[in-house]
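ok so i was messing around last nite and threw this chain in just to see what happens. nothing serious, just curious
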Amino acid sequence: MGARREYTENLALIEAIEDRMKKLVVQEMTKNYLWYRLKSAGNVMKVYDTKEVPFYIAPPQLGKWIVKGDTLPDAQSSAAAMGFWTNRFVVVPSGFDMLEMMQKEHDPSQVIDRADLRAAEVAWALRRTLASAAWNGPGGKQPDGISTIIEAAAPASQTAVVGGVNKASKPWFRNQYVQLTANFGSIAAGTVLPAGILAALSLIEQCTIGTLVPSDLITTKAVFSLFKRAMLEMSTPYHLITERKAATFGFQNFMFDGSYLAWDPQCPADKLYALHLSEVFDSDRTGDPRDKTKLDADLEDIGKSNVFDLNGSFAIIKHPNIDMRRIAPRSPYRQLQQTEWVMDSFNIGVMRLSDNGVLGDNGGSKLSTWS
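result:
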């Protein structure tokens, strides 16, 4: 049989053609970063129904300096609150025509195995659904996505309810925010640095606690490209390193002021997020490399790790029993169409929001516009 010289989108006909490539050539690719980064960080919280999380809100009162004749201070109650995280569930369907599958049994000429194709499509669809929800999940039935948890608004204007905590009335659970008011490449008076670079430095500074710097800076591809341009135009090797020892420049991502910068197609437009997905300590942040304090010198000095949890990073919320769980195929009465489903659980939780933040602009796509 000779090769066909006509265009077709009929899958059954394509399967029957002999003289063709043996695999389907994918035409649409995407680079989902955040979801895979969350997985690689390994912070997973197993939740069967609800995980209650106690928050210690404020440090204790300071001691009272006294002289002869003064009264002793009264005891003060601890300031604590309780938040909670729950699961979210997603289902991806896969359909089969039973008669068609029977006809293909024991037919070696059918190179494309329809069952394998459907299985791959289900897994692919599930991953893209999770990758999108990691950014854009609005809560409710869907996960609390990063753009929902971290609001692009001044702390006093934040209103989201995250982990059961209402940020409108609880200032201790608000994220950081830096607003860019000039185009990325604009040079402000008194400096030689682009406005976007200065704003990013300000965001990192606000999201650094002790010597713990944000592990990840995630943005759009357009903003990522402007950072690369800025690094090249400023010609400062300090900004181009991806490893402190090797000082090599990477094209997939690179370090900016100690944090890895990467892009994700799901990231909201004109935004740059500074996140603590893993622990990255930089002792030079305090100005003296001999300073071994990581987060809080006082707490680390008393060593009460059995009482306090200093980890404030993000975590994946998973149900232990619902992970790529298959639901048995079913067919409507007297019909040959068969459908099966794959169910998964996924949500995002964060223990401390004040260490995380977002850089945005006041309109006009300033963050992705050079000048």
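not much to say yet. The chain has nine helices and 16 strands.
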